[in-house]
Amino acid sequence: MRDERVEAKREADALDEPAAEARELAERLGLEPYPVRYWVVDHDEMNELIAYGGFQRRYPHWRWGMNYEQQRKKDRHGLGKAFEIVNNDDPSHAFLQESNSPADQKAVITHVEAHADFFANNRWFGLYADRGEDGPNAAARLERNADRIAAIADRPDVDRDEVERLIDAVSALEDTIDQHSPVDAARSVEKPGVADDVSDPDGDALAAIQDRIDELDLSEEVRRDVFDDEWLEARGEGIEPEEPRPDVLAFLRDYGKRYDPDSGKAVDREPWETTIIDALREEAYYFAGQKQTKVMNEGWATYWESVMMGGEGFAGPDEFLTYADHMSRVLGSPGLNPYKLGFELWTHVELRAARRDVIDKLLRVEGVTPENFHSRIDLDRVADALEPHPAIAGAGPATLDELADLAAEGDPRVDGEAVDRALSARSEEESAGDDGETAPDAGPDVERYPWKLLTREGLAERHYVLSRPEHRGALRNVSRETLAERARYMFDVDRYATVDEALADADRAAGWDRMLEIRESHNDVTFIDAFLTDEFVRERNYFTYEYSRATERHRVASVDADDVRKKLLLRFTNFGKPTIVVLDGNFRNRGELLLGHRYNGISLDEESAKATLERVFELWGRPVNLATIRVEYSDEAIRRAKRRGTEPEGEEVGVRLQYDGGEVTEHDLDPAIRERIEADEVDYDTKPDDWLA
Amino acid sequence: MGLTEDRERFREVGEERREDLAEFISHGDLGGSGPDRVRIPVKIVDLPEFEYDRREAGGVGQGGDGQPQPGQPVEPEPGGDEEGDPGEEGGEHEYYEMDPEEFARELDEALGLDLEPKGKRVVEEVEGDFTDTARAGPRGTLDVDEFFKRGLKRHLATDFDEEYVREGLFVAGADVDDVFAWARGEGVPVSRAWIADAAATAAEAHGEPVEALDRWESFDALDDEVDREPATHRIRREGLDSVPFRREDERFRHPEVIEKRERNVVVVNVRDASGSMRETKRELVERVFTPMDWYLTGKYDAAEFRYVVHDAEAWEVDREEFFGIQSGGGTKISSAYELVEELLEEYPYSEWNRYVFAAGDSENAGSDTTDSVIPLMESIDANLHAYVETQPGGAAPNARHADEVEDALGDADDVAVARVSEPDDVTDAIYEILSTEGEGSGDSTAGEAARGRTDGGGGR
């Protein structure tokens, strides 16, 4: 055992240098990551970390054991070796698998640095990080929850099984939160400690909130601004909310009770139960940021990994093949792959921004209009002109003198200081060559890390998207409509006399700048909505599929960009889950809970909905109801459809499922409630009319 | 570590929610399992959540080359290949996996079986502890302890209280022969020659023959007065000056030879594939045979399976084909037993546990059962011959094979006949068969003993 640890330590030491260099490169590229602590772990520790969602300690629950077994199976069968896992925290902690090859380790480090940048700068992560504590504080927070829940389970007066049942119930509802406002999460979670176990004596939620706001010790100004009457009213409208409440878990926390089988009645919860609900709910908010940005975040990390590893040769030439293989495996895994989708979308964003920049410049050349763009402008020449400066493209020991010349002219693309140091190191080496001594200051290692000679601007030119071979045709492919669209709102035309003059003004960092902006403000839903263009769908062969009831199998439904976008949005909106809201906490005036499934044309999986409803009962203590709409297909309709080679028309039927501790029963849905849950304006169906013709 | 507990708890939760074993055997989906891995569907393992109906939701795919045409059939995405991604999981059933060993244990528990497999084939002779001894061997293996003990024993056996015997010489009128007779009578290991020597010495010292030395009136008087001191006391008092080592006391240690016997089994599954064996019958056969195969795999160290199907003729097939084949021909069960006999020549009964499981709908040609099958069953040595009649809806009047076998061999402790008419009968049939096993050939005790050794030997 000890030997293994020594091995891991040695491995970790060997990573200090690449980690430091990767950080420097990442910052030079314009990223601003959280500090990262690197750990090297063996595969079993890795499986444990993955089971725990990237952390070393979590509260006791069998689900972690399940995750572990699944991961171990994957690991053993070579289906999913995890190279790394990194958690969103400040500092971030990255765990690297001991068995990774050196090339893998470097690739993983570059990947991790980009993740850490995303954690630190994305707004959706920020929602949690800025919730009032000093940064995400995640590891400490989860550890505290682990200790508290373990302590509760150990209490002699608490039944372990009860704790597990409660965790089961809350976990089943972990996605029914209001992930857009985690500030709200902080509301119900008090300061850690014994105080949490004391519930509000009077049970008045509104008063309790008021108390807590007082405790926050805010200035009167802030309080009026943030926690105004309207806000308070929204929180405190109590058990019969005017508007549907998306944070089901919070509602259950505030107004739920516990069913006591002995008396057959709902009783108030024990304080420890509320403590557990609060802890798990807060963790759900923490993980929500991750779940909402999976495509963006993985794509982001993959993009920068490819720039650093492939573009900047962060892997040595001998390691490059291993790296390339690793990358192709990551991107090549079948199905809809968030790494690949994200990577492609980011590249698309970059390309579009760069192209727009160039088009804008070219359209400002005297006499160029959208109509004559393709004929007036020699796009081959444009492509040549956009090639990076040879000294920049080939930056390294061989181009030092050229770079020095550029630096002397104050060229912003060159890191003059680094070039100076490299030059003096070189001359010292030359003079030292006679007596065989090594120079005291070796200067930057420009052989291995040529990027040290360049600024972000220089690097942007070196990696300019429009000069990459695969994108050289991008300008040619731009349509006249797009050009006209751009030109329509353009002022200050005819600014440049010649094409060369215009291109000299092209901003090579336009793509990267745009990417940085987007990584700050978007989540997967808005990202896909905004950047999944027709061109993107066409070029990458994306399509939608639907289940055909007539032929009883899945079929390709559409290759239309709008359809693909619609389907992807379905998959990423609200974690890809149906939206469930609280409609009423005093349904039928009997204290029953009424949840509503906001029906968007896709019905629920009823089996799991019923099973989940049983968990809701655990947290409400009284009968619970779920209003939903399902699509029913009559045998007749299916028969007719089969005969005609069409799809059957389904009938949307409102249903209310009720669970009172016995069996889930089905009831007709009151039309007034149906109206409240039905969304008319959305349609996720992408089946064409003449589908099976 | 907390995760260890979480894993244990997960196993418990999984176990609570897996299908009851008997239920699984009778009605469950056996197809998800392989020969080494029994996969029992678990009702729900992961927590439920509100989710979309997967069919209603559809999805997005990416074409390899070129955009596919609408209407073209596709496979929806398989279960996710990255963790925690929404909507990626859930398509697959959850299974509780057990290996055949666990399956066998569980089935023992569920059905109250206790089959004790016997070790048969000697797979190796290993050197055990140096616990056996021999009279010859290399010097280095001389068992010094033993050598000394034997020498000491000899010393104790030959040693005696010399003073005591000498006193005998002072009994009135006693000569050497009297003293010798007395000493021997007292159980003193003394020789006459020693007494004669002692007498001569005493006579010399006192100047007169021993007969004349009268210190004691009689031997009885001597015994009353003088206590004999046992040799052990004396050795303790005086110490051991020398132990007489002799060649014949030498013992050389050598390792014990342990025969490791493997608990090995060959199972021949025989099935009627004739035209009358329709799907329901075949499925019943599969439900009986498959769990028995797992069970025996789990019970034995090594298990081999052979599969024979027959109509009027018999031929060997692979497991994959075994349960599905249906041929058109008539039925002659003895053809299968002839082939079984031939196959089993590879597995001598002295080295293998043998099970012959046959199944069919009891239809057989003419008097084939009494004329040929029963004699063959008697002549083929096996731990167990079983016949499983699968006859949905109960016995058919002219299908008599099971009855005839039962009449002829029903009392034998190595023949079992079971009847299955519906899935609910399956576990009873399995119990009937697996609880019937005979004692097999006589070497079972040796096997037991050897197993005791091998089981214990794992700790070194």
Automatic annotation (TrEMBL), chain A:
Give a single Pfam family match. Answer: SpoVR
- SpoVR-like C-terminal domain mapped to chain residues: 578-629
Q: Which domain of life is it from?
A: Archaea
Sequence segments annotated as region (Disordered): 410-446
Domain (SpoVR protein-like N-terminal) spans 12-355
Q: Which PANTHER family match?
A: STAGE V SPORULATION PROTEIN R
Protein name (record): AbrB family transcriptional regulator
Automatic annotation (TrEMBL), chain B:
The segment annotated Disordered runs over: 50-98, 435-460
Pfam families the UniProt entry points to: DUF444 (PF04285)
Which residue ranges have biased composition labelled Acidic residues? 78-89
InterPro entries (UniProt xref):
UPF0229
NCBIfam families, alphabetized: PRK05325.2-5 (NF003713)
Entry protein name: YeaH/YhbH family protein
